[in-house]
Specification:
Layout lengths: L1 H11 L10 H7 L4 H21 L11 H27 L13 H22 L6 H15 L26 E3 L1 H23 L4 H23 L7 E3 L6 E3 L4 E4 L7 H17 L7 E3 L7 H10 L19 H16 L10 H11 L3 H16 L13 H7 L1
Parallel strand pairs: 4-5
Antiparallel strand pairs: 1-2, 3-4
Helix pairs in contact: 1-4, 3-4, 3-5, 3-6, 4-5, 5-6, 5-7, 7-8, 9-10, 9-11, 10-11, 11-12, 11-13
Length: 402
């Protein structure tokens, strides 16, 4: 418990910034320290099993079954693991937890607990063979390694879905944890759990125990691989869009349940941004969705201003060793759009040089700004067009407008 508490506090201290007040995100992010929980529980199981073996309790008068004897030692470890999972969820939950609609994702919590039980099962098997010191040490190191190492691999990328880390980067408001990822975790863990139960109940039938335990664990592994391989790095899937609430037109503002409490601000600031964009001849998006739950004015203005423009690189930019000057243009167009919408320069997160150049473009007449925008958007969409970002190049348009 001491090791587990220290691990929870240490690993949770720097990971809460990526969590948004959305239960799918909170629950998924809380699995980032699952490796610590499962490793410690596996070590506890190895410790308790080694104590039973060293006491030679199996040679005493058989008034209790092996399953009951071992269960009395391992159930407390399993309870500790369950409490640790909920403690991790509480650590990652925002302060205003009562204001978050819905409930924690039970699928994520169930998959996480399956991982814990699988480590307890392996800890039991290790404790039967190793001493009270060596077994727990092996489970701590091995469990920690298995819990964090797959997520650091580029290949095979699907391996992270077997240890419960596949959904650790989920979720934006338009995402939910992947059912296939959770299924792969449960399938792999269930194979190990059942193999442990077989080892307990068939303790006096060595050959049958080995065959059945091997078959069950390999079957669980095969099922997990079938589910996980198509996913690659992906641990999320699209959220049910029927939950969106939309209002207005041109732009139509669509909000998720977590955003509804601030609906008036979203709608008002989105319309404000659209009016300013039309002044310089830029059409706003037909429909707007937002990634933030509790935004400020500048964030909404910037998001509304940039959501109507596609900045996806053209096919020519995706060829090997391709030169794409559109990146340079997009780097200034983004803050320019935000400034047009009314966002304050100090609130923008783009490079300072790009923001300063965008401010100079904003000093030109609307017609010149529209010409600047159209000219540089050609560079974004065509690899052969060099950008022309200097406001001085549009001086003739400025004099004509005057």
């Amino acid at each position: 418990m001491v090791i587990l508490l220290a691990g929870l506090l240490f690993f949770s201290s720097g990971n809460k910034d990526a969590v948004i007040p959305y239960w799918e995100s909170i629950t998924a992010q809380s699995t980032l320290i699952l490796a610590v929980i499962s490793a410690v529980c596996g070590a506890g199981a190895a410790w308790e099993t080694a104590r039973l073996r060293e006491s030679d309790i199996s040679t005493w008068a058989p008034s209790r079954t092996d399953l009951r004897i071992i269960g009395e030692r391992l159930v407390p470890v399993a309870i500790v693991g369950l409490l640790a999972i909920f403690s991790s969820l509480a650590i990652f939950s925002p302060g205003a937890i009562l204001d978050v609609p819905g409930w924690p994702n039970l699928g994520v919590l169930s998959a996480a607990y399956a991982v814990v039980l699988a480590h307890i099962s392996i800890g039991y098997l290790i404790g039967r063979k190793l001493s009270r010191l060596l077994g727990p040490a092996l489970m701590l190191i091995g469990g920690y390694f298995w819990g964090f190492w797959p997520a650091a691999l580029a290949d095979p990328s699907w391996l992270r879905h077997l240890n419960g880390q596949g959904v650790g980067d989920c979720c934006r408001l338009d995402q939910v944890p992947s059912t296939r990822s959770l299924g792969a975790t449960v399938a792999f863990s269930s194979g190990l759990i059942v193999a442990g139960l077989i080892a307990i109940t068939l303790r006096h039938h060595a050959r049958r125990r080995l065959v059945l335990a091997s078959f069950v664990s390999l079957a669980g592994l095969a099922g997990a691989v079938v589910l996980a391989v198509p996913l690659g790095f992906t641990g999320d899937q699209a959220r049910d869009r029927s939950l969106l609430w939309c209002t207005g037109s041109r732009p139509q503002v669509c909000l998720w349940p977590e955003q509804r409490a601030r609906a008036d601000d979203f709608v008002h600031w989105s319309h404000e941004a659209s009016r300013e964009l039309r002044i310089v001849g830029v059409e706003p998006a037909e429909s707007i969705e937002f990634a933030m739950v509790a935004p400020d004015r500048d964030s909404v203005l910037a998001a509304a201003a940039t959501s109507g423009i596609s900045f996806d690189p053209p096919s020519c930019a995706q060829e090997p060793y391709a030169e794409y000057p559109g990146d340079e243009a997009a780097l200034v167009i983004y803050p320019w759009l935000a400034l047009v919408a009314g966002a304050q320069p100090r609130s923008l997160t783009w490079p300072e040089e790009a923001v300063q150049l965008a401010q100079k473009v904003r000093e030109m007449p609307p017609a010149s700004q529209k010409q600047w925008f159209d000219r540089n958007m050609r560079s974004v969409r065509d690899c052969s067009v060099e950008p022309e970002l200097s406001p001085a190049a549009y001086a003739s348009s400025k004099r004509g407008a005057s």
